[in-house]
Write a structure and sequence with these properties.
The protein is of the alpha+beta class. It has a domain at 5-66 and 181-247 and 345-399: FAD/NAD(P)-binding domain. The chain is built from ten helices and 19 strands. Strands 1, 2, 9, 10, 11, 12, 18 and 19 form an eight-stranded mixed beta sheet that branches. An eight-stranded mixed beta sheet has the order 6-7-5-14-15-16-13-17, sandwiched between helices. The structure holds flavin-adenine dinucleotide. The site of flavin-adenine dinucleotide has 43 residues, from helix 1, helix 2, strand 13, strand 17 and helix 9.
């Protein structure tokens, strides 16, 4: 394990504001990732006093470690959403999902955030005939929805990715790439400028309702009283909210970055700067990264990795896609947690009035959490459930959750085998 490729750039400083005594505020947010920061920023600008508390440093968890791929929508396309949730909520969900990349790119532009970015779109590349047919259906739905997406044939996907072995794909122009660590730190900077106070390295260990206030206790015995609370702990959820962690399957997403590549080699890879996910059940995703590095990510072992060999499946994938990279050195290896749910959709809960939780963004949290944060705050202020596109559901722990690692490891091994055999 090394530091991520993103932390090579100098990180935006902002003042850490530890809880040194008992305090009160209007809104307490547990978790200083993209969701916590976007919620806090919006709430502070609406005039609330806001405290964000994070067990780690801002940017040290998923929001700062991720692949920086900005992808519209969810696993499901508009037709499925309408069929499943009905005309009104289904259409609202499709519209919300479609809007999430704009939420990121507009925020960066509006706030003049110092975040490297490229809105060149997302390519989903097909590894099999079956996958290509599914991709065509998906692209057609979004084209009918008004998105200027394009179905790619073999020659087009090969030209745009520079990769070997795909049978086609689709290009969704809404997506793109950002530098996620810079994005997260810049969000913290503007949140603080708006009045949010952020306490890093502060774990909340208890949460109780006392009369009309929520009381959050830190691991070192301080308390924070708040009128409302947003739990933005996502895949890093612990026992703070009973049952919450057991509603999620926290998978490990591993990433590698090559040594800096020559301009000649770089010009043959993703020449127009798109980001790519492939259609395998065990997805690999890749893009060009900082300092001329190539980045590739995918599922990793459920155990904490202790040896560089834990990333070797990603090195094989990179070299299979780009034989020209066969001899390049892999200089960075890192990983983080992604929260999956059984229904493959993010979940929003409000176990008691004024305590709101959002989790489970299935590896699409960059756009999703940027767009969702302000909606949660608007909902808390207005109590208008239509502000939140997802249904607010009870916390329902997954049965046999204690055995999740065994089940997930077996499923990953099985799906890898099917992916390998399929063509
Ligand atoms: C390696 C990797 C690659 C990914 N690639 C992409 C991608 O390319 N595109 C994309 O859209 N998404 C991607 N994702 C997913 C994306 O990063 C997440 O969905 C998103 O960052 C979630 O943001 P968040 O604010 O909800 O949670 P997080 O950023 O995970 O923040 C949660 C925070 O809660 C804190 N916390 C937890 N418990 C407590 C507690 N008790 N007290 C105080 N603090 C607590 C944690 O310290 C953490 O900082 C990837 C994720 C990983 C790990």
């Amino acid at each position: 394990m090394t530091a991520s490729a993103w932390t090579e750039a100098p990180s935006t400083p902002f003042p850490n504001d530890p809880l040194t005594q008992n305090e009160s505020c209007d809104l307490a947010i547990v978790g200083g990732g993209i969701l916590g920061l976007c919620s806090g920023l919006h709430a502070a600008r609406e005039g609330l006093s806001v405290r964000i508390v994070d067990a780690a440093s801002v940017g040290d968890r998923a929001s700062g470690l991720n692949g920086g791929q900005v992808i519209a929508g969810f696993k499901y396309d508009p037709g499925w959403l309408v069929a499943h949730f009905g005309e009104k909520r289904g259409a609202a969900l499709a519209q919300f999902g479609a809007s999430t990349p704009d939420a990121v790119f507009d925020l960066i532009a509006r706030e003049k955030l110092d975040v490297p970015r490229q809105a060149s779109g997302w390519i989903q590349a097909a590894h099999s005939d079956v996958a290509m047919r599914a991709i065509e259906q998906r692209a057609k739905q979004w084209i009918a929805y008004g998105v200027p997406a394009k179905i790619l044939n073999v020659a087009e996907v090969t030209r745009l990715t520079g990769a070997r072995g795909y049978l086609g794909g689709w290009h969704d122009p809404r997506g793109g790439a950002i530098q996620p660590f810079a994005y997260t730190r810049e969000l913290a900077r503007i949140a603080v400028a708006a009045g949010v106070r952020i306490a890093e390295h502060t774990r909340i260990t208890r949460l109780n309702r006392e009369n009309s206030a929520w009381v959050l206790q830190t691991a070192d015995g301080k308390s924070l009283r708040a009128k409302s609370v947003i739990i933005a702990t996502n895949a890093y959820a612990d026992g703070l909210v009973p049952g919450l962690a057991r509603t999620l399957l926290p998978l490990h997403s591993f990433q590698i970055a090559t040594e800096p590549l020559s301009d000649e080699v770089l010009s043959t890879i993703l020449p127009e700067g798109q980001v790519v996910s492939d259609s395998r059940r065990i997805v690999v995703y890749y893009r060009k990264g900082p300092n001329g590095r190539m980045l590739l990510g995918g599922r990793g072992s459920m155990a904490e990795p202790t040896d560089p060999k834990a990333w070797s499946h990603l090195e094989h994938a990179l070299k299979r896609l780009y034989p020209a990279l066969a001899d390049v050195a892999i200089e960075k290896r890192w990983y983080g947690r992604v929260a999956m749910t059984l229904d493959h959709l993010p979940h929003v809960h409000e176990p008691e009035p004024g305590l709101i939780i959002a989790a489970g963004c299935q590896g699409r949290g960059v756009g999703l959490m940027t767009a969702l944060g302000p909606r949660l705050v608007d909902y808390l202020a207005s109590r208008d459930a239509e502000r939140i596109p997802f249904p607010i559901t009870p916390i329902r722990p997954i049965p046999f959750h204690a055995f999740r690692n065994i089940g997930i490891s077996a499923a990953i091994a099985w799906y890898r085998l099917v992916d390998m055999l399929e063509r």
